[in-house]
Amino acid sequence: LFIDTIEVITKWMVSYTGKDTFLYAMSHGFVQGFGGGIGIVVPFLFPFFIIIALIEDTGYLSRIAFLLDNVMHKIGLHGMSIIPIVLGYGCTVPAILATRILKSKRDQFITAALATLVPCAARLTVIFGLVAFFISLKAAVLVYVLNILILGILGKILSTAMPEVSPGLLMVIPRYHVPRLKTVLQKTWLRMKDFVIIGWTFLIIGSIVLELIKYLNMTDPINNFIAPFTSGVLGLPIAVGTTLIFGIMRKELSLILLFAALGTNNVASVMTPTQIYVFTIFVTFYIPCLATVAALIKELSLKKAFIISFITFLIAVILSV
Q1: CB 112 within 8 A of CB 300
Q2: Is 82 in contact with 192 (CB distance < 8 Å)?
Q3: DSSP state, residue 234
């Protein structure tokens, strides 16, 4: 129903503005960005944040942080760091903003770096839309196993490089109680509001910019310019260049653009299983989306946002190669 609605709106815009016009590019970009936000919020974010709010309101989320404290200490963090990381599986933006619960600037930086590597709902679309569909479900699950391994290794490296004497974790464990519907909905909205204000805005802006680039016929020059990296280093088709660049605006956009760039929805007919897996791994781990970068700048700083983005890009290249 949602896809049909977008198609109806698109056809209406074409009949009103024409397809090869500046006005169409602007309006179509807005509709795609707005629709992309709905596509993330309704099936992924809203149910995920409802579940998190229920777990938190029963008093169990604090216990999870306490139970995982020893595990997190092995990579140099406290159990409280697990909360932003878990939130990252819904959307990275509220996960980054949730690092403000950590008192140490060092813990905040390391946790933010780990949270950016967690496969969010948008990355989930790419993982299951490519690897699970065209290779196997086991191969898709392997991405998550690899992700946990990378989080542990990176956390250990960063905590070793940034040593800090810690007094340990002190926290109040609330009693178990039945969650209240009003409280659950309020907590859900508070977390979703971060995405609506920051994430959704950048989704729309990114979609408009992408449509303008297509309108100006700049796709082929961009692909040819970065071909030494996409084709030479990663071993991917030259046509996927723009999908990697503009996937930074919206991660799930990488999948949509890939279909358009290859000229078919049957990716397996154009790319080998190795190429499909390399593309997915790179998209999953490389530079976070613009909304996440904006959240990193807000919570940390421009310099730290750049450092984290560089770390994720480096990890993506190493894993892909």
Answers
A1: yes
A2: no
A3: S
Task: Provide CB contacts within 8 A for 194, sequence distance 6+.
Answer: 93, 94, 97, 295
Residues 6+ apart with CB under 8 A from 306: none
Q: How far apart are CA 183 and CA 189, in angstroms?
A: 10
Report the SS3 class of residue 100: helix
Both tokens assigned to 232: 């030479």
- Are 206 and 33 in contact by the 8 Å Cβ rule? The answer is yes
Q: Specify the 3-state DSSP secondary structure of 79.
A: helix
- Looking at residue 127, its amino acid is I
Closest CA to 304 of 82, 120, 99: 99
pLDDT at 158: 92
Q: How far out from the chain centre does Cα 72 lie? A: 22
- Return the C-alpha torsion angle 157, 89, 4, 8, nearest 10: -60
- Tens digit of pLDDT for each residue in 122-139? 788 788 888 988 898 999
Higher pLDDT, 26 or 99: 99
pLDDT band at 94 (very low <50, low <70, confident <90, very high): confident
pLDDT in tens, 231-261: 999 999 988 888 888 788 777 778 777 876 7
Give me 102's structure tokens.
Answer: 């950590």
